[in-house]
Design brief:
Blueprint: H1 28-32, H2 43-64, H3 71-80
Length: 82
């Protein structure tokens, strides 16, 4: 069996950390690196892992297509709208 590389949140994703929902109070990195939990043994935790993985996957795809604005731009536009 080969060792898996541990997933770590990339710096560009950090501003979105608070918007990743349904973690059940668990750390996002822990959930992303949990490859052992199966539905037959722990259905709630398995569903939480899938939910977080799908949210992270969506962010990664949006980022790779340039569809996410830089966080500084978002903050600036919110401040100028006040």
């Amino acid at each position: 069996m080969t060792a898996r590389t541990k997933w770590a949140m990339p710096p560009w994703m950090e501003p979105y950390r608070e918007f990743i929902l349904n973690t059940g109070g668990n750390d996002i990195e822990e959930l992303m690196n949990d490859h052992d939990t199966v539905v037959q043994v722990n259905a709630p935790l398995a569903m939480i892992c899938v939910a977080v993985q799908s949210q992270v996957s969506l962010l990664e795809r949006l980022h790779s297509h340039g569809a996410l604005r830089a966080w500084d731009d978002v903050v600036r536009s919110n401040e100028s709208g006040r």
